[in-house]
Amino acid sequence: VNQVANLTLVSSACDIVSTAYASTKESHPYIRSLCDAAEKGVKSVTEATASCAQPVLTTLEPHVAAASEYASKGLDKLEEKLPLLQKPVEQILSDTKELVSLRVADVKDAVSS
């Protein structure tokens, strides 16, 4: 999970969502109340689940470690094949807009000639 969260694409997307969430809460008092209640509920459920799940997690720890190592190796291969994962969302959007603009210009040139 940490390795995925540290991918530039994922972390920049999380930053964008977090900023939008905070801005929305700040701008709309009714939504803020709803979000605050939801956050408290999630926190309570998380705390209750964590205490109940701890014995199970302790038992499964070797299996979780093996799965984590396997997933980490797979993610390393994915990062090699998809360098896009190391770019922030803003750069991907900018590159995509530029590519689309170039393609549209090519089509216009082809149609006009």
Automatic annotation (TrEMBL):
Keywords assigned: Lipid droplet
Family assignment from sequence similarity: Belongs to the perilipin family.
Cellular localisation: Lipid droplet
Species of provenance: Haliaeetus albicilla (White-tailed sea-eagle)
Gene: Plin3_3
Pfam families: Perilipin (PF03036)
Name the record gives this protein: PLIN3 protein
InterPro entries: Perilipin
Cellular component GO terms, alphabetical: cytosol; lipid droplet
GO terms of biological process kind: lipid storage; positive regulation of triglyceride storage
Source domain of life: Eukaryota
